[in-house]
Amino acid sequence: MGLPAKKSSRSSKRRRASHFALKKGELSFCSHCKKKILPHHICPFCGYYAGREIIKIKIKTKKGKKKKEEKLEKSSKKKKNEPEKK
Ligand SMILES: [Zn+2]
């Protein structure tokens, strides 16, 4: 193994390291839902790629909607119950 002939100074080390920072990856937009996605990947939000639905993504949205609906129902029930009590 070759060894460095001389100690590299603090400044030369830091100067070299000035180019080590990672660049931000570029994102493309989904053709279906227009959200930012990784290029050449199936959209994780709607499951579309090249204008076709490849994966059906419904579980997450359904659960979220159901929870919201349940909350709404509960709140509406409470609201409905309140006037009955009065
Ligand atoms: Zn999409």
What does this protein structure show overall?
- The chain is mainly α.
- 41% of the residues lie in helices and 9% in strands.
- The strands form 2 sheets. It has a two-stranded antiparallel ribbon. Strands 3-4 form a two-stranded antiparallel ribbon.
- A hairpin with a 6-residue loop joins β1 (28-29) and β2.
- The protein starts with 9 loop residues before the first helix and ends with a helix.
- The mean pLDDT is 78.
- The site of zinc ion (ZN) has 8 residues, from loops.
Question: Can I get a quick summary?
Answer:
This protein is mainly α. It has helices at 10-17, 59-85; strands spanning 28-29, 36-37, 48-49, 52-53.
Layout of secondary structure:
Blueprint lengths: L9 H8 L10 E2 L6 E2 L10 E2 L2 E2 L5 H27 L1
Antiparallel strand pairs: 1-2, 3-4
Structural class: mainly alpha
Largest sheet: 2 strands, antiparallel
Please, what is the average pLDDT?
A: 78
How is the largest sheet built, in terms of strand order?
Answer: 1-2
3D shape: rod-shaped
Could you give the count of β-strands? 4
Strand percentage: 5-15%
Identify every distinct bound molecule in the structure, by name, code or SMILES. Answer: zinc ion
